[in-house]
Structure formats: structure tokens, C-alpha cells
Design a protein that fits this description.
This protein is of the alpha/beta class. It is built from 14 helices and 17 strands.
Length: about 475
């Protein structure tokens, strides 16, 4: 009997778990898990946002391989492969962007999201009617579907499923499994994503702002974003008004992380209670990070700095299949490694189209198997949902253990950073290290050449009512 539980946490930065040095938030339960697991401390998201990141997490694909507004027929999600092999599969998500509307229920035996069932068929119909060719976004219809979901859940405290609700569903699903039944569960916690509504007990005691104040400040900031993330302006972008707002954002973000950690504890307690934990593999990661003014912005937008693309990644292998416990692996890893890792623990071959390899192989690599030097992260639309999905606007980063190169077609800008000396990516060395840059740039150019012939479609417009609903999640709609 094998159970693999993939836990993805929205917007969780790599440096906000206490197995990392200098974390500003204590996560003692996760730290204890890390002591008996394997930490991959150079884990890189395939993109800085949920929608382009998940084809990597669940289908081993980079965002520009097939597009990313929903699962495409060309995507090969891990749950399809597992279900075909007789593994029971369960998907649970609090984020509409990873809901059944966008075909994330595909291949799962049991799937739970927070979209009212009476509206799901109509929303799916809209998605099917307006699905574009591989790199087409269909943004106006996408936003219209999301606006409908928000309207239908308008009685919620926040416009997503909260962690305790999702954990209840996960525990129920685990309890329904038969003894000896192989199972895969994916659960996506949304709570560190704004708007914030953590239970009061997870807030620091000296927190002054209440939930209404902090979310009003969040929306004021997000409503004033430029359409694109350009080069840093002279003097930087001003902090949110009032100045203490960014501190409030951080406090509520940390509280949401503590809340999610507590729900992970509940989930693992259930595994222990039903005596599945000894044969369980836990994979804990994030879809992307979050910026708190490191590069003059807040949130997660079309930028590829480490606060957005470096994510926590922990694997706890209580099945003793071959991951060394209590160790840290520094070799660069990627979202695209997750599907091959999951199938590996079930002794199932990975799909030949997947771009990654099993983390067990990475952790045990030697001269014969070889190590990976670089991984990719990319995105090719602007920050407004009405923007086109166009490879001519692609931003691609090549990230290694010590260096990063970013090619930004939106601004014709090249950036190179020595991450050992400049981990916060403040000193662009693109003009100072030509030999190093030439090698990294060639990797970017090869990637861009692979998607050059795509034919994207322009974006559309939105009615005012749809725009208002989308603002509840902080998205630009103009």
C-alpha cells in the first residue's frame, strides 16, 4: 500500500518556512517534518503565478509548452497516469484557477473545489466554447467565468476555499479509502494569497490593523498597478499608503502561513490515526512566492526574481523507498520534477512527454546519472488578464545554483545576477560578465526558439460587473 500526498500552498515564499535560515515566521511543525525528510533548497517554480505554474506541478510541462489557461488535451497530468494504473486519485483545491472549470478534475476519481455544483456545467461549457489554440488565452471569457464563480460564492469570507474546509474534505477522503488501496491526493491551500482572513489566534498579538483595514490597503495598492512590470524607476516605486501598510500585509501573510501549517498538522494526524502514515510520501511545495517590495512591488506579477520563483520543497518519505532523511539537496529542481517523483513512488514509469525527473533520482545523483545545472522559469503575458498571451512578450529566466539570467522581451531587457554575492538580485551584471551571460543567454534563446511559431490571439474586454468581481481577488482588469 502506497499513499502519496502532494500539498501545494499558494504564494508561499521559500524563506517563510523555518527550516530555512532567517525565516521571519516560525513553522515548528513543518520544521520537524523537514528533520525527517529531504529539503530541496533550490526549488524553482516554472512561473510566478498560479495558472502558468500548475502545468508544471501536475503535468511536467513548462508554461509555453501548450499554454496555461487550463489543462489542454496535449497536457499529460499525473493523475491520468495513476488512474490508468489503478491508483485511487483525489484532488482538492480552494482556487478557482485550478478548479473543474479549467479541467483540473481531469483524471481524478474524486475531486473537490468550491464552485457550486449547479453552476459547474455552465462554466465548463463556457470554457470549452472559448478554448483557444495552444497559446491562446481567451482572457475575456476566462474572466467572465471567474467573475461568475466569485458571485456564486459571495457569502464567503474570502473568494476561495479556506484551509480548514479543504482539510475536512481531505480527511473524509482518506477515511473512505480501503485498507491496502494505493492512493494519490493533491490538496491546494490558497490562504496565504490575498485577500487575508486568518483566524485571530494565528495573528501576532501586537497586530494593530484589522482584516478590513489590511484588505482595503491591499486593494488600493493593486488597483494602482501599471500594466507591465518595467525596469525599476528612478528612486523606486513608493510604498503603499500609509507606510505601515506593508508591515500589515506581512503580518497577515505570516498568520495565514501558520493557519495552513496547523491544517497540515491536522491532515497528517489523520494519516497517523488511520495507520497510513508509515507507507505515505509527503511532498510539500508552493506554486510561486510573493513579493513584499523587494523589487518595488507587492504581490505576484510577471517578474522572475527569487522572491517569486524560488519555493519551498520538502519530501518526507516514510515508506523508505530511497530518499535520504534529514538531508538538504542544493541541486536546482523544478516544478516539472513533481509528476515524475509521484509516479516513481508508485513504481510507475513517467510519461515520456514530461520534462522533469524524479526527485529521488536528483537526491541520489552521481557521476553516472549526472546532475542538473540549470532550470527554467517563464511567462508570456502581461499582468492584466486582458493582455495577450504572446511569446513576443515572453520573460524567461535560466536559474542555476549560483547564477540567474533573465531575458525580458517586454522591455528588451537582459539581467544577470551572481546569487552567491547578490541573493536579493539588486546588481545587474549583464554587461559585466559577457562569457557567463553568453552561455546563459543561449539557453534562453533555445527555449524561445522552441515556441516561436505559436499563433496567439489578442485579449478581449470585460463588462463592468465582471471587473468588480475580479477585483475581489486583486487582479487588474483594465
Amino acid at each position: 500500500m502506497t499513499t502519496v500526498v502532494l500539498i501545494t500552498i499558494d504564494s508561499l515564499r521559500h524563506d517563510h518556512v523555518s527550516w530555512m535560515e532567517e525565516s521571519p515566521v516560525e513553522t515548528p511543525y513543518l520544521e520537524a517534518l523537514a528533520e525527517r525528510g529531504t529539503v530541496f533548497d533550490t526549488a524553482i517554480a516554472t512561473a510566478p503565478m498560479t495558472t502558468p505554474a500548475f502545468p508544471g506541478l501536475l503535468a511536467g510541462a513548462y508554461p509555453m509548452d501548450h499554454g496555461y489557461n487550463q489543462f489542454k488535451p496535449a497536457h499529460e497530468p499525473v493523475q491520468d497516469r495513476l488512474t490508468d494504473a489503478g491508483v485511487t486519485t483525489v484532488g482538492i483545491t480552494g482556487n478557482v484557477a485550478t478548479s473543474a472549470v479549467f479541467d483540473y478534475d481531469r483524471g481524478f476519481d474524486r475531486f473537490y473545489d468550491t464552485i457550486p455544483i449547479e453552476h459547474r456545467d455552465r462554466l465548463k461549457e463556457l470554457a470549452d466554447q472559448h478554448a483557444d489554440p495552444p497559446l491562446g488565452m481567451g482572457p475575456s471569457e476566462w474572466k467572465r467565468k471567474r467573475a461568475l464563480q466569485l458571485r456564486d460564492n459571495s457569502d464567503r469570507t474570502v473568494p476561495y476555499g479556506r484551509a480548514d474546509e479543504l482539510t475536512d474534505e481531505a480527511v473524509s477522503s482518506l477515511e473512505s479509502l480501503s485498507q491496502g488501496e494505493d492512493a494519490f491526493m493533491w490538496i491546494h491551500y490558497m490562504d496565504p494569497h490575498y485577500p487575508y482572513a486568518p483566524p485571530r489566534e494565528f495573528l501576532e498579538t501586537d497586530t494593530v490593523w484589522d482584516r478590513t483595514e489590511v484588505n482595503r490597503a491591499v486593494y488600493r495598492w493593486l488597483s494602482d498597478q501599471p500594466d507591465r512590470c518595467g525596469p525599476r524607476p528612478e528612486g523606486g516605486r513608493p510604498y503603499p499608503d500609509p507606510p505601515e501598510a506593508i508591515d500589515a500585509f506581512r503580518r497577515y501573510y505570516r498568520a495565514e502561513i501558520r493557519f495552513v501549517e496547523d491544517q497540515i498538522r491536522r491532515l497528517i494526524s489523520a494519516l497517523e490515526r488511520i495507520r497510513r502514515m508509515e507507507e505515505t510520501v509527503l511532498i510539500i511545495t508552493a506554486d510561486h512566492g510573493e513579493e513584499f517590495m523587494e523589487h518595488d512591488d507587492y504581490g505576484h506579477r510577471a517578474k522572475l526574481y527569487d522572491e517569486l520563483i524560488r519555493v519551498p520543497l520538502l519530501v518526507v518519505d516514510d515508506s523508505n523507498y530511497g530518499l535520504p532523511a534529514g538531508t538538504t539537496v542544493s541541486e536546482p529542481t523544478s516544478h516539472v520534477d513533481i509528476p515524475a517523483t509521484v509516479t516513481d513512488f508508485f513504481r510507475i514509469d513517467p510519461h515520456p512527454e514530461w520534462r522533469g525527473r524524479s526527485l529521488r533520482e536528483v537526491a541520489n545523483s552521481d557521476e553516472e546519472t549526472g546532475s542538473r545545472e540549470y532550470v527554467l522559469s517563464e511567462i508570456c503575458h502581461h499582468n492584466s488578464f486582458t493582455a495577450s498571451l504572446d511569446p513576443e512578450d515572453a520573460i524567461v529566466a535560466v536559474r542555476g545554483a549560483g547564477w540567474k539570467y533573465i531575458k525580458n522581451r517586454q522591455y528588451g531587457r537582459k539581467e544577470a545576477y551572481d546569487l552567491d554575492d547578490d541573493p536579493r538580485e539588486q546588481s545587474n551584471l549583464a554587461e559585466d560578465v559577457p562569457v557567463r551571460v553568453e552561455m546563459l543567454a543561449s539557453l534562453c534563446d533555445r527555449r524561445l526558439a522552441a515556441v516561436e511559431e505559436a499563433s496567439p490571439r489578442p485579449g478581449g474586454t470585460l463588462p463592468d460587473v465582471a471587473k468588480e468581481r475580479l477585483r475581489q481577488l486583486g487582479y487588474r482588469t483594465d
